[in-house]
From TrEMBL:
Entry protein name: Uncharacterized protein
Transmembrane segments: 48-72, 78-101, 179-199, 280-302, 322-345, 365-388
Chain spans, region Disordered: 1-21
Claim: Transmembrane is one of the keywords in the record: yes
Lineage: Eukaryota, Sar, Stramenopiles, Ochrophyta, Bolidophyceae
Annotated keywords: Membrane, Transmembrane, Transmembrane helix
Length: 490
């Protein structure tokens, strides 16, 4: 009689193994719950920042009105310049709103334009984003994306020029307490708007899904670490804005022509860089070639000045500067500041300057202020790069163009929404993969329509180009009439 040897139970089936599995499962569940809880907390914080940004836009307009009244008493040119920045800002915002809403019914288009002219558009957009209202038919971008571009316009046409006008007036004419407080408020408001744009875009779940290699550098699994990064983003933005504004105001004290030459030359260099890399046409899907050029020109100009002055981290996106050019602007700022500071000190030693200015800054103050700002920028930038996830650091050195990003997104994305989203870019950006997009679209379009998938909403349907749909019946199903675009709640 042979003796049978009892085999030990596998570890996974033993009490010890089951206990380990249960413990591991509980730990995993706890981590997931913690992650979702922190994500909700960050979502709430992002909403608060969103509301605060809209509030600060209103308050900045109020400060502009106060400083205009003061300037009318002794510096009418500064008053008219400030009024001009507000008018240009409203005009540019109307152009952006028209570009994004031009396919809607006229009554809805005019309503959006009225929101801009009456200066309540920031509040309306903030409300739409916080309440997560759906995208109506005919709108090219989401409420959040539209708000980002309108904030960029506000930075470009009102906030940053307003800061520069006030800084010039403060140095050249009036160094009063009221002028100093108004200037400080404008600087902090502009920096907050820029920083909040970066933070809001990064914590949005959809952005992290569509572009995980770019969005997500603010960790959601650690509230203290994430908040520290958010504060550093704001601090870096404020330091960059103060440094550039201060340097250009000193340059203007010597010659407004030199300051204008620098701004024009810097912008032309950027346009040349984009043109050389065949990356000038912006992503907005405007069909008309002249319209596409105009939109690209305006968009590049707005993002160049607004994000350059405020160190907007969104500028490192391939659609905007790209990582390498963004880092170049950050490195070039100290050089520009020291150069204009030294020119100012050389100029004020002459008799002309002593007769022109009531108060002249000393070399200790100028070099001390610029040196201090640059030191703070370097330290805060180092801390920022140290705290973010390592995989995102390479995005600050990337040479990827917008079209390369679009092609890469289509070829690597596993999410259907991300793949079909390439059609929401200018057609020239995905011309290389147009046939692949056509094949993918026709293979899946019927399924998306019949299953009525939640992500395949009216906004996504609108981005599908008719000439890419091979089946006429399928195209009719895609373009089924909508009773009223406002039934979506917007």
């Amino acid at each position: 009689m042979s003796s049978s040897k009892v085999q030990p139970a596998p570890e996974g089936d033993s009490p010890t193994g089951l206990a380990r599995k249960k413990s591991l499962s509980q730990t995993t569940l706890s981590i997931r719950k913690s992650f979702l809880t922190n994500m909700n907390k960050f979502g709430n914080l992002a909403n608060l920042a969103l509301i605060a940004g809209a509030t600060m836009s209103f308050s900045d307009l109020g400060f502009d009105l106060v400083i205009i009244i003061e300037y009318m008493q002794y510096n009418t040119s500064a008053a008219y310049a400030t009024i001009g920045t507000i008018a240009i800002s409203l005009w540019a915002q109307c152009c952006v709103v028209y570009a994004f809403h031009r396919n809607r019914q006229k009554r809805y288009l005019f309503r959006e334009l009225f929101y801009v002219i009456s200066c309540v558009k920031p509040g309306v957009d903030a409300y739409r984003v916080v309440t997560k209202q759906p995208l109506p038919q005919g709108v090219l971008v989401s409420s959040h994306e539209e708000m980002m571009y309108l904030r960029g316009v506000e930075l470009f046409a009102e906030c940053i020029p307003g800061c520069l006008i006030q800084a010039i007036a403060y140095i050249n004419i009036n160094q009063t307490t009221i002028a100093a407080l108004s200037l400080m408020s404008s600087l902090l408001t502009a920096a907050f708007i820029s920083a909040s744009m970066t933070i809001e875009k990064d914590v949005v779940k959809e952005n992290r899904i569509k572009n995980p290699t770019f969005y997500g550098f603010i960790p959601l699994d650690s509230i203290p670490r994430g908040l520290t990064i958010c504060l550093l983003i704001y601090f870096i933005s404020a330091v960059q804005l103060v440094a550039k504004t201060f340097a250009l105001a000193l340059c203007n004290a010597e010659s407004s022509t030199i300051m204008a030459a620098y701004l024009v030359g810097d912008t032309v260099f950027y346009f040349g860089y984009k043109t050389f890399r065949k990356d000038f046409i912006y992503w907005v899907p405007v069909k008309n070639i002249f319209g596409a050029f105009f939109v690209s020109l305006m968009a590049r100009l707005i993002t160049k000045l607004s994000l350059d002055f405020t160190a907007g981290f969104m500028a490192r996106h391939p659609y905007e500067f790209g990582g390498a050019y963004f880092s170049f602007t950050m490195i070039s700022t100290p050089v520009v500041c020291f150069y204009f500071g030294s020119r100012y000190l050389s100029y004020v030693e002459g008799e002309e300057a002593k007769e022109k200015f009531k108060n002249i800054f000393s070399s200790e103050l100028v070099y001390g202020a610029i040196g201090g700002l640059i030191f703070l920028q370097m330290v805060s930038s180092f801390m920022f790069l140290r705290l973010i996830e390592p995989k995102y650091r390479s995005s600050f050195l990337s040479l990827k163009t917008g079209s390369q990003h679009v092609v890469e997104t289509f070829r690597t994305a596993t999410n259907e929404r991300a793949k079909i989203g390439v059609m929401n870019n200018h057609r020239s950006m995905w011309k290389e993969i147009e046939e692949d997009v056509r094949v993918y679209l026709n293979e899946n379009l019927k399924k998306w329509i019949e299953e009525e998938q939640e992500w395949f909403n009216e906004g996504v349907r609108a981005m599908v180009l008719d000439d890419l749909v091979d089946d006429p019946e399928l195209l009719k199903m895609l373009r089924r009439p909508v009773e009223d675009e406002e039934t979506g709640g917007r």
